[in-house]
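Per-residue structure
===
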Amino acid sequence: MAYFFNVFVIIAFLLFQTSVAPRIGFFADFFDIMVVFVVYTAIYRPIKESGIFVILMGILMDSISSSPFGLYITVYLWLFIGIRWITKYLHTANLVLIPAIIAFVIICQNILIMGVMALFEKSFYFHHDTFRLIMVQVLWGSILGPLLLILVKNFQVKWKALYFEKVSKFFGQ
């Protein structure tokens, strides 16, 4: 049942990021909301389940974006590996660390994307507008990222409780 939940969250985030956010003015410089799902799966879900969904989410993002194929798979997979490694040393239940982790992930995502694009274009030019955009994304991520993470975590608990309630009613216990 967790698989259906993960698919539901990925589709909901994808629809928001591609359909709703571009239509709302103050979401123009919004961060990649899929990063919240990568952080959620890396921190709170088992590695087998989360690794599969991070790869599938990367394939989905690669197929709908105009970036080179494999960019989002690579970025999400490296972010996932980095978060799993960092969580070995940090206590992730601390609510102060969650905004810092999300901000760090957003910065790393932008650096990875700029690095890959620089390899393809064979040149690199860092404009001050790019720095402003990254800082706006970090600000959005630091504010809304932990709220979305808590929302997804609580929704997962309610989803699981509802599922077990239906199963127990079906078997008459």
